[in-house]
Amino acid sequence: MINVTINGDAHKLAEELNLIDLLAKFDIEHDKVAIEHNLEIVPKSTFGQVMVGDGDNLEIVHFIGGG
Amino acid sequence: MSDKLVVAGKGYNSRLIVGTGKYKDFEETKLAVEASGAEIVTVAVRRVNISKPGEPMLVDYLDPKKYTYLPNTAGCFTGDDAVRTLRLAREAGGWDLVKLEVLGDQKTLYPNMPETVEAAKTLIKEGFKVMVYCNDDPIQAKILEDIGCCAIMPLGSLIGSGLGIQNPVGVRIIVENAGVPVLVDAGVGTASEAAQAMELGCDGVLMNTAIAEANDPILMARAMNHAVQAGRDAYLAGRMPKKRYADPSSPLAGLI
After folding, report:
1. Cβ separation of B88 and A44 shorter than 8 Å?
2. What is the structure's pLDDT at B1?
3. Is B129 assigned a catalytic role?
4. What burial class does residue B253 get, using C-beta atoms within 10 Å of its C-beta: 0-12 exposed, 13-18 middle, 19+ buried?
5. Which of B196, B225, B202, B170 is CA-nearest to residue B39?
6. Where does B68-217 show beta strands of DSSP type E?
7. What confidence score (pLDDT) does residue B255 get?
8. Are B44 and A65 inside 8 Å of each other by CB?
9. pLDDT at B185
10. What is the complex's ipTM, to 2 decimals?
11. By CA distance, what is B81's nearest residue in A?
């Protein structure tokens, strides 16, 4: 098991995952979000290569209504 | 006659930019945006709710291919937070036209100008095209233009207040001094105030609450659409001079 923080909440994952698989696990469409991985913005083109490991911190954001 | 709003090299037929917050649901958002005629919509960047997957998303109702999404930094109280938010927005959407706002306090949501200036410099260096929410100070507005902001957006009055344009003289001076578009951002409460902004010579108006919190948001969106066009036409037409006494409209010659 590995421990990661996603959008401020602690989560446990069975194994290290790349970001595409992680988003799929949470049922999130990867083309509609942006991800910050340990404070670094991840280019969308590399979602398949970036691995989420123990202790990592992720911010997953999208666009919502706003003024 | 072509009278487009040109921001960062791109022309828009509508001079009204609308926010997409505070609506009852996405369907109402969509209908109000359509009625407003706006081609640019502001959006916020927020965390995905990962405990509720499959929730409807704004992009399912307002097609980013049809509307220009203008990511904002609402809720950011430091320049660093604003820059971080817009870097994420650029990655999420692939657009570099952004609305920068760095707020000073919760009660007034007045802009923190020193933080705004520093954030704008950083963003412009990174290739962003920055439309900037600012106070109604003409000197400050000029500073923002000089560092490369592509549109200056002074507040009419406090965000969400509906108090209209409190400092029309300041806004007018900003317009006269500016070489980039000036849009009143925040404070407009009803259609006459949108028209007033345009009659002052502003290039456009940005609003959210005035539409979203009207009893009938879709009808108010239509009213704002007309008001912005009417105000623009009135500005271009040039108003008559104000006089202290009457001037009869019917000829005096030939009276019986």
Report:
1. no
2. 58
3. no
4. exposed
5. B225
6. 68-71, 97-100, 129-134, 151-154, 183-185, 204-207
7. 87
8. yes
9. 95
10. 0.92
11. A39
Angstroms from B120 CA to nearest CA on chain A? 19
Give me the amino acid identity at B64. P
Structural domain boundaries in chain A:
2-62
Question: DSSP letter at B76?
Answer: -
Instruction: Find residue B38's DSSP bridge partners.
Output: none
Shortest Cα–Cα distance, A28 to chain B (Å): 6
- Please report the pLDDT score of residue B56 as a whole number: 83
Which residues have a Cβ under 8 Å from the Cβ of B187 and sit 6 or more positions away? B155, B156, B157, B158, B159, B161, B162, B163, B164, B165, B166, B193
Alpha-carbon B190 to chain mean position: 14
Sort out which chain B residues have CB atoms less than 8 A from A52's CB and list them. none
Catalytic one among B10, B24, B99, B142? B99
Contact in structure between A17 and A25 (CB atoms under 8 Å): yes
Of the candidates B46, B74, B208, which has its C-beta nearest A61's C-beta? B46
Which residue would you say has higher pLDDT here, B246 or A30? B246
The two counts, helices (H) then strands (E), for chain B are 8, 10
The pLDDT value given to residue B93? 85
At A26 the pLDDT is 87
Q: Give me the average pLDDT of each 10-residue run along chain B (256 residues).
A: 89 96 93 96 91 82 92 94 93 91 95 97 97 97 97 96 96 96 96 97 97 96 98 96 92 88
From chain B, pick out residues whose CB is under 8 angstroms from the CB of A67: 19-22, 42, 44, 72, 74, 159-160, 207-209, 212
Q: Which of A26, A41, A62 lies at the smallest CB-CB distance from B87?
A: A41
Fold of A2-62: Ubiquitin-like (UB roll) (3.10.20)
Cβ distance B22 to A7 less than 8 Å, yes or no, reads: no
Could you tell me the pTM of the whole model?
A: 0.90
**CB of B188 closer than 8 Å to CB of B228:** no
